[in-house]
Inverse folding.
């Protein structure tokens, strides 16, 4: 089986991580020949993990997929979603991506979510919507104000905060990067001292998106105060410090922090350290395996000889992506 066909088969895999990972990576290597397979995935996959396929098609600017997006706005086909959260999520994802193309087919549904103050839009899609740069999105964007986000988070004021949901706060902090309001800075600085390292990390990244290198010293002070590996991973990501991230990957006590460091190395495309990457890949289990593979894929390190692993569909996705990207690379 060719690498591309192997990835298309992965789109039909029952595992909720394997299929969306294949979809995301097909877009990242810009394999436009896989657009028909991705369209089939978003239309016929039963799982609401199909949102990864929608993201992939939009990343590829696959405008021939617009009819499929319009269809999913009306019927997302997620009969495995017993709580209906994914049902709304797939519809919203399709509608938001259509809006980014200037297509308003899903605008009424997005407005309905906003009128109901539905978390599906306020938590999951605000950051994406605020980054759209066309006239079609302006009506929705105007409603995603600083005040609207604070209301969603059920807070009374910046001084009297009642947040308890870290994932909701991370989404809020991500969206604040794109809010045209000076109070967003105050909000992010507040959450740079929040008890959750994940919330702090998102606040660091968003403040950096807003102000760039001018706030690195301030972020560094907060990282030093909290003194956790995860805080340092985010600082390494922001400052693109590959050496610091490699040190964390090698020395962090928690597997999550080691994996986060590997993903950060991939994101900044730090030159891949073959010995370090293989030291994780040769482990029998652990998320670090896939963090190391992500690093190899993002740096297009084709020449690294990967060991064989049996009965690991997610591992096979990365192997096939590397093989396909090598085929697609100019000679």
């Amino acid at each position: 089986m060719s690498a591309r066909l192997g990835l298309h088969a992965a789109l039909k895999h029952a595992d909720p991580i394997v299929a969306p990972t294949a979809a995301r990576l097909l877009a990242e290597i810009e394999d436009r020949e896989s657009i028909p397979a991705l369209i089939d995935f978003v239309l016929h996959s039963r799982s609401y993990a199909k949102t990864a396929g929608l993201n992939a098609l939009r990343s590829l600017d696959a405008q021939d997929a617009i009819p499929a997006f319009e269809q999913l706005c009306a019927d997302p086909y997620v009969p495995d979603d017993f709580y209906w959260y994914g049902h709304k999520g797939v519809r919203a994802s399709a509608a938001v991506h259509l809006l980014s193309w200037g297509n308003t087919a899903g605008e009424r549904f997005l407005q309905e979510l906003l009128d109901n103050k539905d978390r599906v839009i306020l938590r999951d899609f605000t950051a994406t919507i605020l980054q759209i740069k066309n006239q079609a999105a302006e009506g929705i964007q105007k409603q995603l104000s600083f005040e609207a986000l604070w209301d969603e988070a059920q807070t009374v004021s910046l001084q009297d905060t009642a947040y308890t949901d870290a994932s909701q706060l991370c989404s809020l902090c991500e969206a604040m990067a794109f809010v045209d309001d000076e109070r967003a800075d105050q909000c992010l600085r507040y959450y740079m001292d929040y008890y959750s390292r994940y919330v702090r990390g998102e606040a660091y990244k968003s403040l950096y998106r807003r102000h760039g290198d001018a706030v690195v010293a301030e972020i560094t002070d907060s990282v030093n105060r909290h003194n956790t590996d995860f805080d340092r991973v985010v600082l390494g990501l922001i400052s693109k410090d590959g050496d610091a991230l490699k040190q964390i990957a090698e020395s962090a006590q928690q597997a999550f922090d080691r994996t986060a460091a590997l993903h950060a190395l991939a994101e900044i495309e730090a030159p891949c350290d073959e010995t370090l990457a293989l030291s994780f890949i040769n482990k029998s289990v652990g998320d670090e395996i896939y963090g190391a593979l992500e690093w190899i894929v993002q740096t297009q390190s084709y020449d690294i000889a990967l060991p064989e692993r049996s009965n690991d569909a997610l591992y096979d996705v990365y192997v096939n992506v590397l093989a396909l990207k090598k085929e697609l690379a100019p000679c």
The chain has a mean pLDDT of 92.
